[in-house]
Amino acid sequence: MRMRRQDFDDVVVTHGRRVFTLAVYLLANREEAEDVTQDVLVKLWRRGHEVSLERVGPWLVRVTRNACIDTIRRRKNGGRVDVDGESGIELFERAPGPENLAYASQLGGRILKALETLSEPSRSVVILREIQGLSYQEIGDALEMPISNVRVTLHRGRRRLREELREVRDHVAAC
Amino acid sequence: MLQHVDGQSCADVLDRLDAWVDGDLVESEAASVEAHFDRCASCSAARRMAADLAMELRSLPTFEVPERVLHAVRMKARPSPWERLKSYRNGFLLRPVTAVAVLAVVVLVVVAISPWRGRGGHQYTGQEIERAAEETKLALAYVGSITRRAELRVKEKIFDEGIAAQTVSGVRQSLKIIGGAAAATADMPATPLPHGKGS
What we know:
Radius of gyration of chain B: 39 Å
Order of helices and strands of chain B: EEHHHHHHHHHHH
CATH topology of the largest domain in chain A: Rna Polymerase Sigma Factor, Chain: A
Largest interface: A-B, 34 and 25 residues
Oligomer: heterodimer
Number of strands of chain B: 2
Distance between the termini of chain B: 97 Å
Largest sheet of chain A: none
Helix content of chain A: over 70%
Strand order of the largest sheet of chain B: 1-2
Number of helices of chain B: 11
Shape of chain B: rod-shaped
Order of helices and strands of chain A: HHHHHHHH
Largest sheet of chain B: 2 strands, antiparallel
Low-confidence stretches of chain B: 193-199
Mean pLDDT of chain B: 72
């Protein structure tokens, strides 16, 4: 059984921006973000019966994040999916291509660059909280984490970002 | 870096820096942290950096889903033929007006194939045949028009031109033609019409 078409259209209007924005910042690549967004929304259509309308927001964030992580793993392994688990995975180590550099410039490369140094789940939590303005509760629901873990993860992410930005400033000052 | 100001260590204050940025500290706690900032240059710099970072992150853009992605999603997220049929069945075929039209078609088909047709020496007049043909066409056109637009058009005709009355009348006439169904014709309920049109 699928979602009613009207419900599906409403969800796309309400949550589409959140899905695409999360994918853009997690992947730092617009084309891949478009592919992931398309896949996630089609998956919502096909598996709408598995999620109630009240829970669709957290579900979309979770599915989008997982799809982005899968995309990143495939990049690192030449198309293979790494099944060894997430521990120690540095999600954004890859050298940026020209299109990504251009995109970084568009967003304000300094912050984006600093964001890329974060590993998961800090990166997702920072994006959801700081850029998308989700509450701790919403983030916890989406990532299936207790609120206390959300706070700690966000704290670590912010601290890491500040360190990164301080290094950049020091470097610029020294030049 | 001062280690203690007003009884607070810099480490304590820096631990609460994020809560202060988020506005999560109670008033008295926030006031004491701010007092520490006023006296500690190092923590004050950290506060500026935290506030700047939060502001920069919050000013980053969010993105609308591109139209080409939405188009691709719409193409893949279409109801299957069976789901469309179910939708029509639930939303269209069960309506009273539709039921009358379907009944009309069934009766007319029965008339057309009836083995008793023409028995008893009854000769159909040209007017009767023409009228029966018109009623059949109307009913078939109505049932055939299963798209929403066609449905609305037919609805307008039914309500505005009193066609429902004509259809019921035609069905009655057809039943009279087969003779044996005359009693059933008398029991058939008339379709209620808006605006008191038709009979």
